[in-house]
Amino acid sequence: MEYTPDGTPVGVDDPYAAAGVCDHLTDDGRCRFALERTGDDPEFAADRRANGYACHVGSDRRWKACPHYRSTTDGRECLRCGVSEVRLAHDDARPLVEEHHLSYGRTQAEHGHTEGRSAGDSGETGDVDAGPHEITVALCRWCHTKVHRSFARIDDDASPDPEAIAEREGRRRKTRSESPFETASQRRDRADRRDESDG
User: Fold this and answer.
1) Buried/exposed code over 85-109 (b: 16+ C-beta within 10 A; e: otherwise)
2) Which residues of the chain have pLDDT under 70?
3) Reported pTM
4) Which of 51, 71, 157, 181 is deepest in the core (most CB within 10 A)?
5) What is the layout of strands, in order, in the sheet containing 134-140?
6) Using CA atoms, how far apart are residues 172 and 153, in angstroms rounded to an integer?
């Protein structure tokens, strides 16, 4: 299993197997990194420009071959148990769903953790691994703790923790109680009716 720079497990053997689409990939298959960050890697950008900015790895999606691949989560739902995020406006309560790193990109390399192989080694698919790359998924805080503190895996067939369900439902109730919207005239009419019933 892969590990964090602190030595705790991340819940997968191969982060690329759980990785999503590259954050830099546009809807039309072009590389946003090459389009918008030319100065960060001029040689890479020139190669992409010569190919109409087409994605470096093409339709095969062998992400590890791209030096600028990155896949980060939207954080809406726990990948492991399915608990969905419920955010409360104007409330700084801890999120139900958190970002969980499967691979730490350049930070991981700086800590001496390069997913068990150095850049340039071949992976199982025969691709050159141009990483390490930043790869994150969404986990609820309960699953996040289980993954880091035990050998729980992100692809376990897991049910939501009872505390997670209770917290989510409590937030939903609070959201519903705050959601009715009244116009000023509706509030005035309600106040007038109350005054009439009091008189």
Assistant:
1) bbeeeeeeeeebbbebbbbbbeebb
2) 58, 106-127, 178-182, 187, 190, 198-199
3) 0.73
4) 71
5) 70-71, 134-140, 97-104
6) 28
